[in-house]
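Why show two proteins at once? Because comparison is the fastest way to build intuition. When a single record is shown, students tend to memorize it. When two are placed side by side, the eye starts asking what differs. So, the first record is below.
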Amino acid sequence: MATIQKYAYLYDATRCIDCRACMIACSVENNVPQNDTYIWPTGGHIIGEYPDLQRASLPYHCMHCLAPDCVSACPVGAWTKREDGPVLYDEKKCIGCRYCMNACPFSVPHFDWDKGIFGGALMHKCTMCVQRLEVGQEPACVQTCPTGALKWGYREALIAEAHARIDAHPGRYIDHVYGELENGGTSYLIISHVPFTELGLPEIGSIPVANLSEDAMRMILPVAVGVGAVLSGVTIGVDVSKKRQQRLAKDEAAQASPAGGKQ
């Protein structure tokens, strides 16, 4: 069976001018207010001290993890991971528990407090413009970027291109492709001229948080069952001991009676 290639973004922070055209395109494409797009900026930051100044910005949206924590955490299957990349949300299944918000190490899913529990889609995030993928088009944010800061393609090819850019200009980039390994790998790949924390990205290991939590639960469950069994045994033992003591006390009282325990 052929391996399905995964779609991904490549973002080059050295090419971003913080014009926010991607946000406008997202708003129009997904029919959401401009202040509620699935992309939000982290920057326009000026870093350093004069005259050694650098500008850094990042359009922050869903990382579309290869092993998404939101999918693992959701108790009703409202989140799913497509084989070709996108992590998608089904509002019809969502119960508003917000476990996905707590599980995501990138703090991506956000809850619509205005809609409340019965007002439609409760969680919002980037969908990778899946409706455009179905007709062979790239995401709206990529299509509208005027400087080529965002690029679209297959993940493995974009990783290779990211490393090629770093190798060709080692003085321009930090020698790391963010998202290649973070949280088990993501479909939003980032290269930068400033530390990734300056772009608002968390420092995170290569093992998905979901794996750690699921491994922990696999370890805890047998222990919990074992402890429960031991406590049940202790409780039964205590009950038996109490009953035995009560019976002995009753027998002693009967023997000590004037009738010698006879009625």
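Second record. Ask yourself what differs from the first in the token line.
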Amino acid sequence: MIRLNGAVRSIVVLGAHCDDIAIGAGGTLLTLCEANPGIRVDALVLSGGGTAREDEERAALTAFCVAADLELTVHKLPDGRLPAHWDEAKSALEELRGRTDPDLILAPRTDDAHQDHRGLATLVPTAYRDHLVLGYEIVKWDADLGRPNTYQPLSPEIAEKKVSLLQQHYASQRHRPWYDREAFLGLARIRGIECHARYAEAFHVQKLTLGLEG
């Protein structure tokens, strides 16, 4: 059954690169972890292992997942080459599946223009077949933002905290023209308008089972 009922006790968060999770779902992570102290967060990132990027990711996710039981694994797949390393990516995901059964999964969306994001998104349902997966979005040069169908409203405090943590922990990304406060808050404001909130993060859901019987 693919549904979300009641309190969230455990989540899996997936990224192709260090910073994907925080950019795409950092506000939702902050919201979940503040509302559910002690929540289990299993995070898997496919590239950046053994580099300064991994150090950034560990510090950042520790800050985003405050009061959570966080377990982070960062692999060493080459950036931009996931399609050529399909077996390694699949094995990493299957290993994680073997030790987790989350209430919720945050992952890239299946129509992301970046091949690494899209490849990971395609793999998720092959390992987690009966779980609710929220596909996050990442603003970038490719102009691939679409029409999401699921929203998590963010308080102004959470939205500002997300942007502050992104700027604080990912120094290696500050040179990128799209990596700034205006871009992150601007997208959050637009998604907020779409769900009658001040700010929000938006997600793409492929399949969802309702529980209207109570």
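One difference worth noting in the second protein: The mean pLDDT is 94.
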